[in-house]
Amino acid sequence: MAKNKDQSQKPLAQNKKASHDYFIEETYEAGMVLMGTEIKSLRTGRANLNDAFATVRNGEIFLNNLHISPFEQGNRHNPTDPTRARKLLLHKAQIAKLFGQSKQEGYSIVPLKIYVRNGYAKILIGLGKGKKQYDKRESAAKRDAQRDIQRALREKQKVAR
């Protein structure tokens, strides 16, 4: 039986704090170089993206502080360090563009979510500009106002029925 395509796009790990701390301007889909049984741990949802960040070194992009817990039924090929730097697979032009933009003041490369597509682990990374405290308050106020509008519309539809 074939898997549903929507199910294969379900996020295995998500960085919910990224949209709170950054204005995400561009997103890129990158492959990840994994070792041993890390993919099995990812598929069971044992990854943490909260403190992760990406850096560019020697024309390659690496993801740091991504915590993938060791697989319990793993063998000797399990990586010993769960937070090791993992190489991301992007085109050279994309890496050069990200490197140039991340060198600007206030910009950084932020991982957003990890998912599996066609059997391969993919990560969605974004170029984010850091929010100031007043920006965070403003976006929270907009979110609350939108929630109140939706609530009022639902109530109005209930009364109309």
UniProtKB/TrEMBL annotation:
It is found in: Cytoplasm. Its main location: cytoplasm. InterPro entries: SmpB, SsrA-bd_prot, SsrA-bd_prot_CS. GO terms for molecular function: RNA binding. Pfam families: SmpB. Residues 132-161 have a biased composition (Basic and acidic residues). The keyword RNA-binding applies. GO terms for biological process: trans-translation; trans-translation-dependent protein tagging. Residues 131-161 are annotated as: Disordered. Belongs to the SmpB family. Required for rescue of stalled ribosomes mediated by trans-translation. Binds to transfer-messenger RNA (tmRNA), required for stable association of tmRNA with ribosomes. tmRNA and SmpB together mimic tRNA shape, replacing the anticodon stem-loop with SmpB. tmRNA is encoded by the ssrA gene; the 2 termini fold to resemble tRNA(Ala) and it encodes a 'tag peptide', a short internal open reading frame. During trans-translation Ala-aminoacylated tmRNA acts like a tRNA, entering the A-site of stalled ribosomes, displacing the stalled mRNA. This is SsrA-binding protein. The lineage of its organism: Bacteria, Bacillati, Bacillota, Bacilli, Bacillales.
